[in-house]
Amino acid sequence: MTEKTVTIQLEKGLEARPVAVLVQKASMHESTIYLHSEGKRVNAKSIMGMMSLGLNMGEDVMIEAEGPDETAAIESLEMYLTGQQA
To answer: Whole-prediction pTM value?
Structure first.
């Protein structure tokens, strides 16, 4: 299992469209991926779960991945959440 904490740098935070893109990116990986924020643990491949987090720009979130491509999964989500990749 691999974990990494990142600070969200998306201008509008994780509202509907950015959440849909994040879920799409997470779903491209075989690993199980969760995001942790303020005591909540949500499956990154679940659009409803991700919407429930209500994350905004500047907030920290921990990405947890476990599986054969866990490192690539974390890197991909980190790049997206920090605004380095659309």
So the answer is: 0.92
